[in-house]
Write a structure and sequence with these properties.
It contains 4 helices and 5 strands, in the order βββββαααα. The chain is α+β, with helices and mostly antiparallel strands and 108 residues long. It has one domain. It has a 5-stranded antiparallel beta sheet. The longest helix has 10 residues. The C terminus is likely disordered.
Length: 108
């Protein structure tokens, strides 16, 4: 996946911001969830960590997957019920090289 600096509109109507090893998807449709508003998903390794509402600008400011995960955890009250849930730290560990899993490196 090639990293991009701008949101790309997809055929399904959502917008995607590709980053190195992960992407963020924003669906503005108010019919997408029971909250009656869009949703923003942090996506990696086949998992989707979804927040209700628009969080595009906030995720744009994040410089790494870990910063995105920290933002997601800070907004736990906005997690969509079909999200992969609050267990984002375990999901990140599953994709890290072994030196980072053991705590001997830093997440970029």
């Amino acid at each position: 996946m090639k990293a991009t600096e701008t949101w790309e509109k997809m055929r399904a109507g959502n917008f995607v911001l590709n980053r190195d090893g992960y992407f963020i998807s924003y669906n503005p449709s108010p019919e997408i969830n029971m909250e009656g508003r869009g949703e923003t998903a942090l996506c990696f390794n086949g998992k989707f960590f979804i927040l209700n509402g628009s969080h595009k600008e906030e995720y744009e400011q994040c410089g790494s997957l870990q910063e995105c995960a920290d933002y997601y955890k800070a907004h736990i009250e906005e997690i969509a019920f079909w999200s992969n849930g609050p267990e984002i730290d375990e999901a990140i560990k599953s994709i890290l090289p072994n030196d980072l899993k053991s705590g001997q490196g830093k997440i970029k």
